[in-house]
Amino acid sequence: MNTKGKFATRAVHAGQKPDPSTGAVMTPVYLTSTYVQEAPGVHKGFEYSRTQNPTRKALEENLAALEGGDYGLCFASGMAAISAVISTLNSGDHVVSGNDLYGGTYRVFTKVFERFGISFDFVDTTDAEAVSQALTPKTKLLWLETPTNPLLNITDIAEISKLAHEKNVAVAVDNTFATPYLQEPLSLGADLVVHSSTKYIGGHSDVVGGAVITSDKSWHERLKFIQNSVGAVPGPMDCFLLLRGTKTLALRMERHSENALKIARFLSNHSQVSKVYYPGLESHPGHALAKKQMRAFGGMISFELKAGFEAAKKMASQMKVFSLAESLGGVESLIGHPATMTHAAIPREERLKRGLTDGLIRLSIGIEDAEDLTADLEQAILNS
Description:
Layout (H helix, E strand, L loop, with lengths): L6 H7 L40 H14 L3 E5 L2 H10 L6 E5 L4 H10 L6 E5 L4 H7 L4 E7 L11 H10 L3 E5 L4 H4 L9 E5 L13 E5 L2 H14 L5 H12 L1 H20 L4 E5 L9 H7 L6 E6 L3 H8 L6 E2 L9 E3 L11 H6 L6 E5 L5 H13 L2
């Protein structure tokens, strides 16, 4: 695969070459379940599409190149990718996770994998001492989100990875919010990078997918076994759409980040807003670290209104340009209420303990004109 060139070049070309039979520039969608073999066990590298598919292979190589990894594996969803990583563990193993994370991740950890004897502790990963104290001889994996969902906390990937590796603990980073364009966790010491490719990688709210990238051959072999054995793989059309998405990832992330910074500044100066969570603001406690380990600050913002929960719910329903919907990372701007939507799976007392209030609003800033987005927020706040 072509891994040469800077990010935007790799995004367009890595893993993709003209179709040898037709010269087609775009990777074909190989809608086949099986492949002819020349003799029993003699084939062209493809046997059955759960195991390998040429369109998926191109996407896996593309994402590996973007993350600076050697191996990429794609899955049917972000949750399938997360589950594949945890499925490599054994009963009795222990996982330390950040305490501000996507509600679906918390749910699968506590409601699915705890049933099989894997234990989880949730700590503030911005606090190295808290992480160190949580690690035990049974800890096999440290799970990070940075920036976190939805409070946009920033963890020092290099520091925490070093700490974990000193205790023989592997590190996985959910890089969905940042994308490989803004942050490359493998270069900072992480062992695994996980994505919900549904979000920024796809970028158009029209496909669901997930991915795991690594440079560790042993991890790749374990995860490849899970991928093939469990079979939660994306279809070839999904892979084609995701490949289309990666081609414009650099351009989109620049616009997402540019718009988000303008809107975060607008919100931070608004008389009806009590708090804004965005690492691009100098007031954010993780600003300096984010500036160090990220190319820009991303398109996600969370904030709270002074008027509280009822005003937040009303505001979310008053938007004209923003759409009230789950998910994030598309070209269109979305608004969500984590307590009743993306993070409803986390018990209220746990959410409040972590700072996720009932009145918190989360924005996924799209690529529309920033002035239109600001005007939409202004009218919705005034009408709430």
